[in-house]
Design a protein that fits this description.
Blueprint (H helix, E strand, L loop, with lengths): L1 E3 L2 E3 L1 H32 L15 H10 L6 E2 L4 H29 L5 H8 L19 H5 L2 H4 L1 H34 L1 H7 L10 E2 L2
Parallel strand pairs: 3-4
Antiparallel strand pairs: 1-2
Helix pairs in contact: 1-3, 3-7
Length: about 210
């Protein structure tokens, strides 16, 4: 046990507190993603989904971009590799959020699945409002473990972990590529703040 002021904190209490903090941070990520989803419909032309996700001409554009060693065209928005990177990051974000919400419900009974799990697994005569992660004695473990969402708990935890690793890797690659393009004189970082990109001489700009 750990002593802090007048409170005794055991390992379980610390674990629950850390999980709650983890879930609250996850909710902030969800809010941020929802805002970005909406912005994809109401933002400027380079913020919209048509500027990010590959279209029917995408693979031909990517092939030409790779053959040119990234130097044949200057893009006002994302180049073909940037589009692929952003698409993968969005897919990983959706996987991270979906698996995280399942674990939030099964681990500490947080929304949106926590209420359902508790309602289906509390013991007879127990008030739903009196049950929490700190009162496992009020939960029928057998009933809870038979729930489908609880059966996939372990698998979702693994997917959540690997999705987070994949997202961190993609973020690293994305940031590395942006810095490399900036150092090559393409002024991507400054364009993010000013909304204007300095075009290289004798090059026709292309919208992505």
């Amino acid at each position: 046990m750990m002593f802090k002021g007048s409170l005794w904190l055991d390992g379980k209490s610390i674990s629950i507190a850390l999980k709650r903090l983890h879930v609250l941070i996850g909710y902030l990520f969800i809010f941020n993603l929802v805002f970005r989803l909406v912005w994809g419909f109401i933002g400027n032309q380079y913020s919209r989904w048509s500027a990010f996700f590959p279209d029917r001409h995408y693979w031909a554009d990517l092939k030409g971009y790779l053959k040119s060693h990234h130097n044949s065209k200057q893009y006002l928005g994302h180049n073909p590799l940037g589009k692929l990177s952003v698409t993968l990051m969005f897919l990983l974000l959706f996987a991270l959020i979906a698996t995280g919400l399942i674990r939030a419900g099964t681990d500490i009974y947080y929304p949106p699945f926590g209420g359902y799990i508790l309602s289906q697994s509390i013991k007879p005569g127990v008030e739903l409002d009196s049950v929490s992660v700190r009162t496992p004695e009020l939960i029928d473990q057998d009933k809870r473990n038979k729930l489908f969402i609880y059966k996939i708990k372990s698998r979702m935890g693994k997917y959540h972990k690997w999705s987070s690793y994949g997202l961190m890797f993609m973020v690293f690659i994305h940031v590395f590529s942006v810095v490399r393009e900036e150092l090559a004189g393409r002024r991507i970082i400054s364009a993010m703040f000013s909304g204007k990109k300095l075009l290289q001489a004798k090059q026709e700009p292309f919208d992505s």
